[in-house]
Automatic annotation (TrEMBL):
InterPro entries: Fun_TF, Zn2-C6_fun-type_DNA-bd_sf, Zn2Cys6_DnaBD. The keyword Transcription applies. Its main location: nucleus. Keywords: DNA-binding, Nucleus, Transcription, Transcription regulation. It is found in: Nucleus. This is Fungal-specific transcription factor domain-containing protein.
Length: 499
């Protein structure tokens, strides 16, 4: 019997020859002891701790650098010596080095520039990049979606916002993302994965930013995100879940897009479409945070959903030929009054107090940025009032209560300094568009200037799409009591969201 390196653990520990019989060797069987086998990895015939590489790690000559969760490399450390004039510099690790040059350039543009137009302040941009980029490096669908979003912004920077939807490179990136997304959705190990939800979010933003007007694009991704969130909630112990802060960020994005879709999208509200099931928030439900992701308060987002549900029922009460279908006018007016009371209660409260941000946010905001957030929130409050008056009450555009909110939105948005990103300025498409639809006379030209400035600074093609729709709407002079812009969208076969 010759010496073996694959003997059982007991024989190797006792430095005895082992006959390597399975499931138990002769020595263990004779001794009546349980026999165990285990594989020991060796480098160059030595245990790792005694190998040359292991010695480097053990004596501090190497350090482990983790560049994303579960992914790491070993790199050298700099050992300063006061007696030596030699300076040893550690080589910087490039986590993008394995990517093709095109993807690497687009991902770097996303980190440096494109992420600015989806962030209201630097802290948010930093958090988004820290969460999205490492995950994109491990999830092909998210990587292609992120580079597509970056390519859309890059194309707009080249004064080619009009050609985004027909740009072959962007179409290819979106197609590759969807191709990988379908495969990943079939993978049981990815059930409940935050990476898939992040992909749905990024594909949705890419479609909206590009100026999509068809419901089978951006709306489908929101519905997909809803299904993914339901699947994730049903498997809370999924190993694919990221950290809690990332999940909170994704939840906030979903709530914001659903609220704005309910308010502006020309289609049924996503989620709970029954306004009566959506209770008006009360003070007992906790602080009404001004969300620094979307630029308005949490309770106002709930009211947006209620407005959208009632407005959609009201919209359906008018047939395609313009004839009114039987409905209870008194019920609509009662719901409009309740919603208006809720909005005005928020306006009165915010006029006398400073906003409450999520914990840890306000410390990173300047006094000027806080003031701009307050103006942005007020613009959204008056956006809600316009929708109540025009889409539920069916008041004409020239009604004093409508024009009062139009002028206040003009005042609020004009006081927010135009910026290329990292400012509440990036969230103003919705209030500018809503007020612009109802603006009269010289106010129309002012909103045209504001939207032009918004596009020229943030370079989101959908802002240009919003302006062009406004000009088309104005050209038709739709200021009647019976047809608001949502009915005009129906006639144009658009499902458009000014975001």
């Amino acid at each position: 019997m010759s010496r073996s390196f694959t003997g059982c653990k007991r024989c190797k520990a006792r430095r005895q020859k082992c006959d390597e019989q399975r499931p138990e060797c002769g020595r263990c069987k004779a001794a009546g002891i349980q026999c165990k086998y285990a594989m020991q990895l060796q480098w160059g015939g030595r245990a790792f701790s005694r190998s040359r590489f292991g010695a480097c790690v053990g004596n501090g000559g190497m350090q482990r650098l983790e560049y994303s969760p579960g992914e790491f490399v070993y790199t050298t450390t700099k050992s300063p010596s006061p007696t030596s004039s030699k300076v040893t510099l550690a080589r910087e690790i490039d986590p993008f080095s394995s990517l093709p040059s095109e993807q690497r350039a687009l991902l770097q543009h996303f980190i440096r520039d494109a992420s600015r137009v989806t962030s209201c302040h630097p802290g948010m941009q930093r958090d988004i990049c820290r969460m999205i980029v490492p995950m994109a490096l491990q999830t092909p669908s998210l990587l292609y979606a992120t580079t597509a979003l970056s390519a859309i912004h890059l194309q707009a920077l080249s004064n080619q916002s009009d050609r985004v939807k027909t740009a072959p490179d962007i179409a290819r990136l979106m197609a590759r993302s969807l191709e990988h997304f379908r495969i990943e959705l079939q993978d049981p190990s990815l059930k409940g994965s935050d990476a898939l939800l992040a992909t749905a979010r990024t594909l949705c933003l890419a479609e909206i930013h590009s100026g999509a007007i068809h419901p089978n694009t951006w709306r489908a991704h929101i519905e997909g995100a809803k299904a993914l969130m339901s699947a994730s909630d049903s498997s809370p112990d999924s190993p694919q879940k990221a950290n809690e802060s990332f999940r909170r960020y994704l939840n906030r994005w979903y709530r914001s897009i659903v609220s704005l879709t309910a308010l502006n999208g020309n289609g049924p509200p996503i989620g709970d479409a029954d306004a009566k099931a959506l209770a008006i928030p009360s003070k007992s439900e906790g602080p009404d945070y001004l969300d620094d992701y979307w630029g308005f308060t949490v309770h106002l987002a709930d009211i947006f959903r209620q407005i959208g549900a009632v407005a959609w029922r009201r919209h359906q009460s008018t047939a395609a030929d313009g004839k009114l279908i039987k409905f209870d006018e008194e019920d609509f007016q009662e719901e409009a009054s309740s919603l208006e009371t809720s909005v005005r209660r928020l306006i009165d409260r915010d006029a006398d107090s400073k906003p409450t941000f999520y914990p840890g946010v306000v410390e990173g905001l300047s006094a000027d940025t806080i003031q701009q957030f307050m103006l942005c929130n007020e613009a959204f409050q008056h956006t809600a009032l316009i929708h109540i008056h025009r889409r539920i009450r069916k008041a004409p555009a020239w009604a004093p209560e409508v024009q009062q909110s139009v002028k206040r939105i003009l005042e609020c948005t004009s006081q927010i300094t135009p910026a290329t990103g990292l400012s509440p300025w990036v969230m103003l498409t919705t209030p500018m568009f809503t007020a612009g639809c109802e603006a009269l006379g010289k106010d129309r030209e002012e909103f045209k200037k504001l939207l032009t400035s918004l596009h020229d600074t943030v370079r989101i093609p959908n802002v240009l799409q919003s302006l062009r729709f406004l000009e088309l709407y104005w050209a038709n002079d739709q200021t009647s009591e019976d047809e608001d812009w949502s009915h005009f969208l129906d006639r144009m076969s658009f499902d458009f969201i000014p975001y």
